[in-house]
């Protein structure tokens, strides 16, 4: 029924859409006919006939107008409007049928022929426009032609029979043609309706998919927001707990106090491990977990790792063995931190399920060629093991050997799932070999690129005191300030604190600082905006080149990039540890780095370099140009440092000119590529301030924040000039 109504609506639409043009055609044909027959037909006949035709045409235009007002109504009565159209066709047909009688010219073959042709043309034209309704065609052709046929036979003139047959054939052919047109029209309408139905179904499916996608996005955003808030809210108090525990353990404690403090620290670290597992899994789901490929000494890596975990394993009363093939005493390129994370997860898993016996780590090459090596690691324990049925699901998320495992041993069930994702990310795989009552034997592989062994390696840097370092801590949490202040004062730094970004901006305008530890989320002004305001300082302003390190509880995907993009130099997540603070101070204040390089360069006796700068300038200039970073990168060759820096200055200057032209011409895709290129070049030669400024411009382009481009580009240009001047000064170019 719906299909029939749909067809009727489409058919009526076609009929009424052509009504205006056919009506105007009737009037035009009538005017021409009357003008041609003006001397043969009485005026009264012509006036009467034209009035009749005009009224019938007017009725057709009237119902056309009324139909237009109703056609979009869902409750439109199709049969009513079809009858109206049939009535309009009947009235027009009566007019043209009457024309064959009252306009018939006597004794004039030329005018008679013109009348025949006019009526024939009207019929032919009308059939083409109303063939959507066979009833209308039948009514119009019959009533138009039959009066003319009867009149011709009645006159009984020469060739009357032939003319009558001619018009009868026109009538029959008109009906046949109309029937053919009507059939084709129905097929087209059927195809159109089916296509429309398919399109509507496709549109409905698209809407459903869009709705599901939006719901999924809302769900993912809610989950990400929840994880971000959970991470931030838990890490903030954890920072106070672990920080105070670290400081407490630095004091002299009784055996019982130390035991209880270590127990609390172990519990806090376990909680932090759970948080890290959840965040890592969130990054994996978002496809944002990345690898950091770097050169590392495998023998040193595995020895350091085994020495760290062995004390924990033996403290539980278990034996620990670590074996690796002698041919692995070489350098590889890969992500040693991710390998360490996998090993830590597996060993923690073994520790959880092994009461007596041992834990063993083996490492050997499973495949090797001239370019790369596939390493196989094995973690074997003598614990409760895993049944054959559970082997197939143990690497799935939130899965443990059985439901009682969580109650007895704890854990999130994410550790092994994260291991599987990480091994895949490192070009390998992970599997379980042994089963219940034999302990657990987990094996995983990673793919590492072979690299040449460096000619020399630097010894580990010793911890030193920073007695002259002025540090500004910006945080709205009193516990966090107290913990960080105590840690910094332990290593000799002088500390000033601020509760929010506004206080921080004011503090740096009143006093010189060497470094800022900046929290991100604070009232009144957050750390991002405070950093942006500090980076707007001019070279002559106080603290222009100050290093800013994010010290935040935000550890979700993109948080590090967000900190760097607003102008911060480094990023560390809470809870903080004294070793990490020491590491950041050593890197960004560059005291011990400068002292170590001094001795090395003194033996080579190169031209005067950054190491001969006055002590007060070393910390400032290292942020602009890190000589030590490029020196280490180019195989400890001062001559190569000079050569690379000369080339880089020319190349970066050209890139900066091209970048300015692209921004001016609003060719933002090209500008983004140039900014990315400049970002890589700046970090290669240790220009950290230039790198940070370039990141800001690149992010403006990525996020289409074009209104900020002029100001940020001018800042980038200023920093480049400062960087160039510093490099030329340090290297005597």
Present the secondary structure layout.
Elements: H1 2-17, H2 19-36, H3 43-70, H4 78-102, H5 109-130, H6 134-155, H7 160-249, H8 255-285, E1 294-297, H9 298-315, E2 319-324, E3 331-334, H10 336-353, E4 358-368, E5 372-381, H11 388-391, H12 403-409, H13 415-425, E6 430-432, E7 441-450, E8 470-474, H14 478-490, E9 494-498, H15 501-510, E10 515-518, H16 527-535, E11 547-552, H17 559-565, E12 570-573, H18 578-589, H19 591-604, H20 615-624, H21 627-633, H22 638-664, H23 668-684, H24 688-702, H25 709-731
Parallel strand pairs: 2-4, 8-9, 8-10, 10-11, 11-12
Antiparallel strand pairs: 1-3, 3-7, 4-5, 5-7, 6-7
Helix pairs in contact: 1-4, 1-7, 2-3, 2-5, 3-4, 4-6, 5-6, 5-7, 6-7, 7-8, 7-14, 8-13, 9-10, 10-13, 15-16, 22-23, 22-25, 23-24, 24-25
Secondary-structure-based class equals: alpha/beta
* Gyration radius from CA atoms, angstroms: 45 Å
Strand content: 5-15%
The number of helical runs is: 25
Q: Which residue ranges are poorly predicted, with pLDDT under 50 across at least 5 consecutive positions?
A: 1-7, 398-413, 456-464, 591-621
Number of strand segments: 12
């Amino acid at each position: 029924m719906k299909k029939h109504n749909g067809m009727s609506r489409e058919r009526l639409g076609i009929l009424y859409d052509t009504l205006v043009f056919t009506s105007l055609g009737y009037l035009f044909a009538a005017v021409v006919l009357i003008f041609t027959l003006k001397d043969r037909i009485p005026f009264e006949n012509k006036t009467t006939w034209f009035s009749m035709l005009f009224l019938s045409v007017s009725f057709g235009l009237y119902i056309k107008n009324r139909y237009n007002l109703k056609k979009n109504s869902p409750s439109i009565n199709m049969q009513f409007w079809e009858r109206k159209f049939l009535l309009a066709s009947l009235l027009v047909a009566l007019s043209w049928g009457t024309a064959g009688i009252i306009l018939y010219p006597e004794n004039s073959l030329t005018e008679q022929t013109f009348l025949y042709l006019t009526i024939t043309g009207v019929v032919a034209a009308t059939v083409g426009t109303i063939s959507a309704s066979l009833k209308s065609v039948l009514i119009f052709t019959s009533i138009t032609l039959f009066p003319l046929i009867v009149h011709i036979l009645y006159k009984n003139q020469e060739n009357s029979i032939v003319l009558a047959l001619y018009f009868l054939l026109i009538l029959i052919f008109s009906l046949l043609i109309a029937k053919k047109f009507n059939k084709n029209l129905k097929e087209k309408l059927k195809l159109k309706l089916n296509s429309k139905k398919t399109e509507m179904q496709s549109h409905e499916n698209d809407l459903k998919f869009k709705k599901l996608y939006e719901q999924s996005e809302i769900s993912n955003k809610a989950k990400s927001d929840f994880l971000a808030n959970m991470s931030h809210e838990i890490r903030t108090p954890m920072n106070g707990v672990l920080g105070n525990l670290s400081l407490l353990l630095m004091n002299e404690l009784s055996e019982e106090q130390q035991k209880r403090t270590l127990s609390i620290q172990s519990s806090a670290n376990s909680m932090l491990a759970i948080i890290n597992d959840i965040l890592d899994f969130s990054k994996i789901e978002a496809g944002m977990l990345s690898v950091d490929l770097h050169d590392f000494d495998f023998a040193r890596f595995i020895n350091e790792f085994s020495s760290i975990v062995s004390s924990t394993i033996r403290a539980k009363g278990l034996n620990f063995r670590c074996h690796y093939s002698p041919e692995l005493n070489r350098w590889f390129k890969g992500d040693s931190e991710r390998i360490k994370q996998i090993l830590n997860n597996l060993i923690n898993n073994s520790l959880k399920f092994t009461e007596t016996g041992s834990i063993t780590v083996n490492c050997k090459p499973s495949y090797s060629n001239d370019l790369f090596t596939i390493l196989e690691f094995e973690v074997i324990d003598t614990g409760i093991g895993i049944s054959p049925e559970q082997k197939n699901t143990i690497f799935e998320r939130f899965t443990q050997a059985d439901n009682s495992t969580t109650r007895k041993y704890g854990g999130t069930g994410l550790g092994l799932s994260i291991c599987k994702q990480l091994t895949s990310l490192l070009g390998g795989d992970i599997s379980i070999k042994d089963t219940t009552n034999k302990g657990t034997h987990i094996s995983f592989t990673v793919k590492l690129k072979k690299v040449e062994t460096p000619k020399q390696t630097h010894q580990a840097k010793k911890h030193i005191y920073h007695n002259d370092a002025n540090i500004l801590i910006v945080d709205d949490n009193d516990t966090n300030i107290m913990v960080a202040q105590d840690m910094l004062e332990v290593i000799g730094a002088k500390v000033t604190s601020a509760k929010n970004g506004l206080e921080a901006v004011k503090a740096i305008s009143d006093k010189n600082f060497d470094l800022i530890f900046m929290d991100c989320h604070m009232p009144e002004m957050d750390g991002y905006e405070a950093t942006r305001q500090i980076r707007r300082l001019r070279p002559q302003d106080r603290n222009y080149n100050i290093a800013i390190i994010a010290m935040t509880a935000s550890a979700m995907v993109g948080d590090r990039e967000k900190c760097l993009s607003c102008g911060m130099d480094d990023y560390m997540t809470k809870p903080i540890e004294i070793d990490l603070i020491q590491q950041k101070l050593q890197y960004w204040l560059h005291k011990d780095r400068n002292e170590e390089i001094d001795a090395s360069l003194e033996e080579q006796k190169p031209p005067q370099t950054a190491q001969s700068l006055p002590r007060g300038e070393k910390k400032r200039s290292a942020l602009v140009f890190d000589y030590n970073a490029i020196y280490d990168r180019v195989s400890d060759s001062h001559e190569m440092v000079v050569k690379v820096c000369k080339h880089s200055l020319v190349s970066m200057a050209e890139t900066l000119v091209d970048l300015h032209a692209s921004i001016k011409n609003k060719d933002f895709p090209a500008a983004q590529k140039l900014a990315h290129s400049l970002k890589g070049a700046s970090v290669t030669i240790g220009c950290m301030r230039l790198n940070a400024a370039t990141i800001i411009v690149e992010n403006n382009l990525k996020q289409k924040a074009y209104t900020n481009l002029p100001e940020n580009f001018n800042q980038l240009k200023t920093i480049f000039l400062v960087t160039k001047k510093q490099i030329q000064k340090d290297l005597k170019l």
